[in-house]
Design a protein that fits this description.
mainly alpha
Length: 73
Amino acid sequence: MNVLAALRLLLDVMGALFLGMITIAPIVFGVFPYEGMMRLGTLPFYGLLGVAIVCWLWFVARAAGARSSDLPD
């Protein structure tokens, strides 16, 4: 997997995380997204960010493993 594809995947994962937080905050807290992020707090926010990074690393490793298994020996 080349670097640009990995960075694109990082943007997709982080974008999905922030889009999820923006759309779920009004539903869960009944407030605007910015205030919902403030109510979420620091530790859960960074916890979600860590989960997103772990998901991104898993996707990159899976894509790199699939690509290496497709190569002829």
